[in-house]
Amino acid sequence: MSDEDLYVDHDNSRWAFGTGFTDPLHGVDQAVPDGVDAGDLAACCLALGDDALVSAQRLAEWCTRAPELEEELALANIGLDLLGQARLLYARTGRADGTGRGEDAYAYFRDPAGFRNVRLAELPGGDFAFTVARLLVLSTWRLALFEELTGAPDPVLAGIAAKSVKELAYHRHYAAGWTVRLGDGTEESRARLESALRDIAPWLDELLTDRTTARLGLTPAAVADRTLASLTEVFGRAGLEPAEVMPPGPASMPRVPGSGRNADHTEHLAPLLAELQSVARAHPDAAW
Amino acid sequence: MNTPAATGAPPETRGLESAFEDTIARDQRVEPRDWMPEGYRKTLVRQIAQHAHSEIIGMQPEGEWITRAPSLRRKAILFAKVQDEAGHGLYLYSAAETLGADRSDMTERLIEGRQKYSSIFNYPTRTFADVGVIGWFVDGAAICNQVPLCRSSYGPYGRAMVRVCKEESFHQRQGYELLLTMMRGTDAQRAMVQDAVNRWWWPSLMMFGPPDDNSPNSARSMAWKIKRHTNDQLRQRFVDMTVPQAEKLGVTLPDPELRRNEERGHHDFGSPDWAELQRVISGDGPCNAERIARRRAAHEEGAWVREAATAHAAKQAARTREGAAA
Q: Is residue B241 scored above 80 in pLDDT?
């Protein structure tokens, strides 16, 4: 093969996911099935896509700053998985909401008020303990949610969920491993972890009371119960008193009013999106 | 020609040394447990550590653009590419560890400026076109340098290079493909690509190192088959490979002396500013200080995390021992 063949090759089958085609759901029957409300489906996919994109952006901020090379690789892996989930969910949104918009329209050309992610995802990076604690909470909740969604009435969303569950199980495993290491490590690591979990606690209620998937016939209470049970188990292995770091039940939780699902965002989302969207918006007519 | 190992060996190592020389002469691989001359080991550690550091520092110029990549497709590609570089660093540190070096010690040497990394990463990335040009030029130059290293006489290094080269060729491809797309886009995008080409061309030619008549370590590394081609041979190969690609892309390489020499069957080209290379290598490039400062900050801010992991592992081991004793 000549050099030229190597560089100007259009055999897309040789490219990794997402590099040789623009529609990640190409080849899939994308009709919204009878009995599924397309508006509800679109709202659900958009919110879950936004959770994934904003989380991936926060993880990308760790690039070249991780405490060890193994963590550099793992955090990038998790960020890439979430970015992949966002792309699939945006593709589904574009079909379900009837606009036919592509993934970049959702990621780059909506303002903060258009985003529906939970606020925990958008909080600033913090230290490694905060990143681990947030990842533990978000991945535990998202795993429980996506396990439910594998039975969603929309087969495309169910398929996206089935693919994502495998990834999320790894994210949770990684975060749980570091929660145990930090909790059972040094005095400093334990203090940092406890402090991170206390900072996160007021944002947990928003996850546990999220009814985004309820309109697709799923049961949010089951997701909340599984999330709390799973977190309690990890805290136990890390030698943390669950009551010390997370309130025992939803009723007694400190909570920040509002929800990202209704666009009640913190002040941190706008700068995150300004950075994410800066090049795309400076060249709105460009092709990349 | 005397191999460098043949000089000054004490009598007790002469049998070992001739076995080593025989391995090199027969183009076979030297493996970690084989006897090797101290100079061979040191040369390899120096080269592999520099290579590993280059991968890790090399994450920074492009890594800056992951959060701003202008499409989700480009974001995924760039994120994966920069992650690959971390992986390359990891294989290479592991290869150096088979020679008795220690990763944390090499990291200390890097952040204290006692070990080098490729000078190319001390130049700034000003626009998203730089991501494409780095893929095309810098990864292209890296491939020219590294494909021959797959046959390096030291086994773990050669094998690491096979995997690294496969990924580098994907990296070069994604860079060139980004530039092709940008050149089909707006006038502003085409101008961005040409500007990035102008800024990265000469530093890329410098990646092959000083000219052969001023490259003190080359001859010894060639004799030991750690290196397989001279700096100037590799530079020529890169220029010959890149010129037709530039024509296809529609950009101009910023060298008025660049032309095809039919007699030689190669392209003639101008001489990079070697004084600039010396300045950048000795620490005075545009971004040397900030690249090292970033690496140092990550290392120092991560110290408590590594200590926690070590403490937890020790506690676990103690608990296992207690469990076994009970």
A: yes
Chain A interface mutation, best of B73, B92, B176, B316, highest count of A Cβ atoms under 10 Å: B73
Q: Rounded distance, CA A77 to CA A83, Å?
A: 10
A56 to chain B, closest Cα gap in Å: 9
pLDDT tens by residue, A77-100: 999 999 999 999 999 999 999 999
Q: Are residues A184 and B312, on separate chains, in Cβ contact within 8 Å?
A: yes
Dump pLDDT digits (tens) for A247-273. Answer: 655 556 678 889 999 999 999 999 999
Hey, what are B176's tokens? 């060139």
- Cβ distance A66 to B79 less than 8 Å, yes or no, reads no
Neighbours of B148 (CB within 10 A): 18
Closest Cα in chain A, distance from residue B25 (Å): 31
Domains, chain A? 37-282 (1.20.1260.10)
Burial of A12 (0-12, 13-18, 19+ CB in 10 A): exposed
pLDDT tens for residues B243-254? 999 999 999 999
DSSP B134: I
Q: What is the pLDDT of residue B9?
A: 61
Say if residues A247 and A97 touch (Cβ distance below 8 Å): no
Say if residues B50 and B117 touch (Cβ distance below 8 Å). yes
- Which residues in chain A are closer than 8 Å to B69, comparing Cβ atoms? 279
Name the least confident of A20-29, B23-32, B168-177: A20-29
Structure tokens at A223: 């997701």
DSSP conformational letter for B267? E
Structure tokens at B263: 């007699």
**What pTM, to 2 d.p., does this model score?**
0.92
Of B66, B248, B297, the CB nearest to A60: B66
Q: How far is CA B310 from CA A229, B307, B322, in A?
A: 29, 5, 18
Give me A116's structure tokens.
Answer: 């529906």
